[in-house]
Automatic annotation (TrEMBL), chains A, B:
The lineage of its organism: Eukaryota, Fungi, Fungi incertae sedis, Mucoromycota, Glomeromycotina. Its EC number is 2.6.1.44. One of its GO terms (cellular component) is peroxisome. One of its GO terms (molecular function) is alanine-glyoxylate transaminase activity. This is alanine--glyoxylate transaminase.
Length: 382, 382
């Protein structure tokens, strides 16, 4: 595998660098999805997810799919045609979540912000009313690196419209940003495997509160999806957690082994430590970006994520040139994704082992590659 | 990884045993889904899939998900509410495909057969009419091991109702049974990675004919799914095939590397040879089963699959006893799956490298484990 020998550090906002033990789990030999060796691995992974999401009774659901599938699960299981959804939009992923909700018949109201900003609590409060079945918050919009204040928004919703379900898109936040399902009264937090969870892409992972499950059970209309329907997945999750095999669709066995390995690593240190580490490394990266005189996509560091950094190219630097130059130093960073400014900025991911295991020097190498590359391209800084 | 040292041969009808190089690809280090190293791997895999499905212009679609997701793709992209679908039912998977089609608004007519049998051409002809938007055929029903004669059915449909789309569930057949998309005029063949494709579970793979794509494009109503909508996936497939990166949802990078490795292996010998090998090994296994005096679930060998064998337990043998005894000889075979007879039969998978690389002795070891186990349990044969 020549690609392995010339490996370039993958410092994009997902997929992130994976631990060697996680990769070894990915190559677990063929194992039956209902075998005595696999069942406890899946069962334990479900239990460990509760720890990562800080919930006692939330129901983890793990399905073969991309993170995107989590939107379908929310939209098809929790919304009935004609019901109202309030979408807080801080970038590309807010747009897409809104589009997904509409496909399943939701009437969507969006609270949009300028690129690099997030809806203010006042704007959210103004838009919020008891007519909304659910509100969605993109915790970190991977396209802009903007961080939402989930805790404050959840408190606001509890006060102003306590029956509104609180749904968090945590694809780019779970494992890197503080998130507490029970304490913050969240109803769904959805994520994917390939970011701070530290597992190759291919798992759609979510937690549903007891209230969310009840809402699903109380539906008056049938779930308008087959693959995404919780009617199929809940019995599977219950079965594996009680250490029994059961079949709906073949689970992605190797990815579940990898998930188990990574969740054990994640839960081996206090989550508080993990979040602090991500904050500290984020500060380190952002301090360098500032010292280079570059401009963040988020309008301030207060609204910036801790697991990634989105930065405008300095004037005169061509996107392809910088990305290629950085790659020539064996570090891969990402281009822009938000349609309106895609060619104007780049993104650096700093999540998972790149953050929690500083001895790997991923962050140092990334900073060095970026700094040198800018210099090579003739950018002299501020 | 202790599970690796005590590996038991996985001889169930999927997941099958995986080649070492495929497993090595599964542990490919983190790689950006839009990087110059990954894009050609995905692009080439799309091209290689055309060879495996024997089609020139069919459109491969590869999505993160279980095989089940293929039903959602068919039902949500090709059927509009109120349209008619004819489902040929030869087991559990026919039931489920019908259920999926109904979720998306299809009016489903089923042609059912007795367990172990398949609808006859006469029964299909009697049920078939031009009112059907599509007909679905389970090529091999994994629950019963019954093989359908796709070629003959497709010819019948072309004669009697040429506008009806022909959809084949090839989850348990692609790579082990002869299937020719263009020559047989098939419109969709869907499959999954973990059977004769030889890649760990987590990929939903299908081929759509130009006519199927046109049917999708001509829809009068919006696609009632977000994740399964071809509107999102077709541009992605086109982009990667033309060696460009594009984003809808993060592809399962490691699984795609593994797919690429396996497809190269599969296409390195003529498909005819591959199908012959599967027939020969199937005969070998079935001859042993017969010589032991055991009864097949399929009513005759003519309607039995070549990639698996479903067998009733002999009288007096408890299901758990036999499966455990076989496992004690380091071979895993599967219990029953069809609800009506689940506790009465077992299933052996013989697909992929276990068939094409006889030097591995997987088949010999499986036959020995089964024969010895039956003897150990006091079964003396006919």
């Amino acid at each position: 595998m020549s690609s392995q020998q010339n490996h370039k550090l993958c410092m994009i906002p997902g997929p992130v660098e994976f631990h060697e033990d996680v990769l070894t789990s990915m190559s677990t030999k063929a194992t039956s999805h209902v075998s005595p060796s696999f069942i406890p691995v899946f069962g334990e992974s479900i239990e460990l997810l509760r720890k990562v999401f800080v919930t006692e009774h939330g129901q983890p659901i793990v399905v073969s799919g991309s993170g995107t599938l989590g939107w379908d699960m929310v939209a098809s299981n929790l919304v009935e045609p004609g019901e109202e959804a309030l979408v807080l939009n801080s970038g590309y992923f807010g747009d897409s979540f809104a589009a997904c909700l509409k496909v399943y018949g939701a009437k969507v109201t969006e609270v949009k912000s300028e690129i690099g900003d997030r809806p203010t609590l006042q704007e959210i409060s103004d838009a919020l009313s008891t007519k909304f079945k659910l509100i969605t918050i993109t915790h970190v919009d991977t396209s802009t690196g903007v961080l939402s204040d989930v805790k404050a928004i959840a408190e606001l919703v509890k006060k102003k419209s306590p029956n509104t379900l609180i749904v968090v898109d945590g694809v780019c936040s779970v494992g890197s940003e503080e998130i507490r399902v029970d304490e913050w009264n969240l109803d769904v937090v959805l994520t994917a495997s390939q970011k701070a969870i530290g597992v190759p892409p291919g798992l759609s992972i979510l937690i549903a509160s007891e209230r969310a499950i009840q809402t699903f059970k109380d539906r008056k209309t049938p779930v308008p999806s087959y693959y995404a329907s919780w009617a199929h997945w809940l019995p599977i999750m219950h079965a594996y957690e009680s250490r029994k095999g059961m079949y709906f669709a073949t689970p992605p066995v190797q990815l579940i082994y990898a998930l188990n390995t990574s969740l054990k690593q994640i839960t081996s240190t206090p989550l508080e430590t993990r979040f602090e580490q991500h904050k500290k490394v984020s500060d380190q990266v952002k301090n360098v970006v500032e010292s280079l005189g570059l401009q963040f996509v988020p309008k301030s560091r207060e609204v910036a994520a801790n697991g990634m950094t989105a930065v405008y190219y300095p004037e005169g630097i061509q996107p392809a040139d910088l990305l290629q130059k950085v790659a020539s130093h064996n570090v891969v960073i990402a281009g822009g994704l938000h349609r309106a400014i895609a060619s104007k900025y780049f993104r650096i991911g700093h999540m998972g082992i790149s953050v929690t295991e500083p001895e790997r020097k991923h962050i140092d190498n990334t900073i060095a590659a970026l700094t040198t590359s800018l210099k090579d391209l003739g950018y002299s800084g501020k």
